[in-house]
Design a protein that fits this description.
alpha/beta, 3-stranded antiparallel β-sheet, binds pyridoxal-5'-phosphate
């Protein structure tokens, strides 16, 4: 006898039961063994500033209270930091949370949404969950293809286009003149979700000036990467006030937690620590690049906290290298879309983690070549 239960909506019934990421914890459970180096999720192994940890410790006994659902103090601090109005800022549960709401705001059933083939998978997940139809544009020379994206937007009359700059998984970036030309050519009826998760580690030239009068651009950033607070789940978007106000209609007003508000404000206030992390990330990128070269592989230029390494053969070979690294307790990831999939992606880690990677990579390569 089939069990009777309420039917899911047609949208939910049609969705696959897949998740965009299998976390390292799930992999550790499946292996029955912990990873020795955690270099796969682009977190910041350097962690948050000591001043942030102190602020969180100090606030711990206040956690019985609900958070301020307006995120007022954090929004005010962000507005001051970026010299924009408080009504130009919305805070959410990481960039992932902000992207989910943006999808709900702009995607109607079956509507086209343009992104790059192999770009950030959580965005695709939200598009699917909103009933949108993804229009993926291949990367060109390991960069998101601005002309290709624009062409697809116009051809599909898409209301939404996603661009990550710098991008994940390749680490590439565009600079202001190219980005502004792209934005200028976008139809006013197309919203650009500009994901700047790695904005802090990018050269200043990769971040066009903020323009909150531009109603079709949403700039989205996070405390998860350079600020070292991935577990606290705080991201934010900056944009034109009326568009930002629309987030109030559907956002989870208590979704951001009180500890996160405390941590993010303290992190924003400690720009010296951020600067020190940015320097350490640059050093770590160089280290990963030289490890790659020592093994005859090609590191790609990166403006992020990771380095993507071309393994010099096809996706099947890179997958073997990945599996051999995982088997050697080195948690890394790789791009999945064809052509990009010839690479593996290594997050900057602590010195001892990169030492471990340097030791294990030659063994993984040898095993993959057998
Ligand atoms: C890591 C990452 C995110 C996730 O950010 P959260 O604020 O932790 O949700 C979003 N976009 C890109 C491109 C990323 O690499």
């Amino acid at each position: 006898m089939p069990v009777k239960r309420p039917a899911f909506t047609p949208l939910i019934a049609a969705l696959p039961s897949t998740v965009p990421f299998v976390g390292p914890e799930a992999q550790e459970r499946a292996r029955g063994r912990l990873f020795h180096a955690r270099l796969g999720a682009n977190e910041s192994s350097f962690g948050p500033a000591p001043s942030v940890i102190a602020a969180m410790q100090n606030a711990a006994d206040q956690m019985w209270k609900y958070c301020d659902p307006d995120n007022y103090d954090l929004k005010a601090a962000l507005a001051a930091h970026y010299s924009v109005g408080i009504d130009n800022v919305v805070v959410g549960e990481g960039i992932d949370g902000v992207l989910g709401i943006a999808c709900r705001l702009f995607i109607g059933e079956g509507e086209p949404v343009v992104t790059s083939l192999g770009a950030y998978p959580t965005f695709n997940f939200h598009v699917a969950g909103s009933g949108g139809r993804l229009v993926p544009v291949p990367f060109k020379d390991d960069h998101e293809d601005l002309d290709g994206l624009l062409k697809a937007v116009k051809h599909e009359k898409a209301r939404l286009v996603y661009l990550s700059n710098p991008d994940n998984p390749m680490g590439s970036w565009w600079e202001t003149p190219d980005l502004l030309a792209f934005i200028d050519k976008l139809p006013a009826t197309t919203m650009l979700l500009l994901d700047e998760a790695y904005g802090e580690t990018a050269p200043a030239a990769a971040l066009p000036p903020l323009d909150v009068n531009r109603a079709n651009v949403l700039r989205i950033r996070t405390f998860s990467k350079a600020y070292g607070l991935a577990g606290i789940r705080i991201g934010y978007a900056i944009g034109e006030a009326e568009m930002i106000r629309a987030f109030e209609k559907v956002r989870n007003h208590y979704g951001v937690n009180k500890m996160g508000q405390v941590a993010a404000q303290a992190a924003l206030a400690d720009q010296d620590y951020l600067a020190s992390v940015v320097t350490r990330v640059a050093t770590g990128r160089e280290r990963i690049a030289s490890i790659a070269r020592e093994n005859g592989l090609t590191p790609l230029p990166s403006a992020t906290n990771f380095v993507t390494i071309d393994c010099g053969a096809d996706g099947g070979f890179a997958k073997k290298v990945l599996d051999e690294l995982l088997a050697r307790d080195c948690f890394v990831r790789k791009p999945m879309a064809p052509v990009l999939d010839r690479c593996i992606r290594i997050s900057v880690g602590l010195d001892h983690e990169l030492d471990f990677f340097a030791e294990e990579l030659p063994k993984a390569l040898a095993a993959a070549r057998q």
